[in-house]
Amino acid sequence: MLSSSSTHPSTHTHLHHRGRALPLDHLPQFNLGKFCGSTTKVTPKDEEEVAKGTPEASGADQVPDGVHTSGNHWHTQKENYEEFWETYDGQKNPLILNSLGIAPDGSLDPAEIARLWGNDVSTRLMKCWGALQNAVCTVGNVGYLIYFNITVLQRGTSSDAYERKSRWLIGTGIYNLLHGKHDFSAEEVVVCVELGLIAVMLLGCTFYILRALCSRRACDRWWHIYMLFWQVFPTMATFTAMKLLFYVDPGILMTEMLLEFSMFKARCVHGRWFLAFWKLCKFFFIRAICFVVGLDAFLVKFRETSAIYINVSQEEVTLSALLGSAAFLFQVLSVVNVTAIVKTRLFFFIFGGEDCAVSTRDKAKEWVWNAMLTQKIWETHRPFKFFIVMLSFTDCDIQHLLLHVKSGSKVEVRAASPREVS
User: Fold this and answer.
1) What is the pLDDT of residue 307?
2) Minimal CA–CA distance to 165: which of 188, 195, 138?
3) Core-most of 50, 346, 360, 364, by most CB within 10 Å?
4) What are the respective helix, strand and coil percentages of the chain, to the nearest 5?
5) Cα–Cα nearest to 400, from 102, 135, 185
């Protein structure tokens, strides 16, 4: 593993790696990109510098005044901070990020795509494990939801049906209006809503597969494949009706409210009063529905999990009770999908620009990059490796492809010690 300002063992090119140390002073540096297919990139310019024997190629960067290099001493995060502070303190325009840049070609060349599979056995094993984990989570989560909801519906015909009808839910009045005079409880309505959403997702998955197989235009084909692997499958892996609570999370809600009010003001300035009030009322109505259905789904799952898997008279733990309780915990933790938020924020950073606003053209560029990347992965790794790379694709791979480190940068000034090179 190459750390900052290290020398490549085969080309002796001075490279600067993107991997950073863990935020703990007394732990060795750990490069997360190693397990995501991230490798240090050797550009044609680097090879030319090696041939010419320039100082940048040989690793002999000029050390700025006030910065001391060390031989075998491993630097902690605090020591690195102090060195960098001495380097840039007093400069009018410190070029701290001078070595970083966005890859203008999106790293869609075959050499970069080939690195997504990994260059060593450990990286490839991690890729296979990540793909297997995502596939098992997708199938297991959908299967558990179907089994759980059908079990709840079957219990509605048992002797405790009257007791279950009397349990309170926030949206009981709304559910009573939906089923009318039919003999349904509010819990069964919530369960049917979740089953309906699962059916919609399965039909959507089938639709994307058929469109990918039948589309005549390449742009349509690869867009549907990209959406299937990086949008539909991750959603199915963590889906639950409780995920509606994500839209009423205080942090998410406040951010979206600020955006909605800014759009409301812009519409009013341009005289679109009706559209402005309609969009604002629609926003609050949808969030209210998400809160009611999401909270009721949590109450139903909590009660049924307790009744089915957590029996107070049961003294020993069974495998079914353990798996059922773990599945419920997994769904609760998946209400806020951190992985999806990180990917969305990363694309927002890359394609949104300095104005922090994503226009239709910016979103179209994001679609084009993802669709063309999917096409290049298929052309480079097909078919088994294609599925592995697509299912194990993470935000680390996005960072590896879109961020470049300029050769010959003087930002990293300390030579790597033996403990930082593996």
Assistant:
1) 79
2) 188
3) 50
4) 65, 0, 35
5) 102
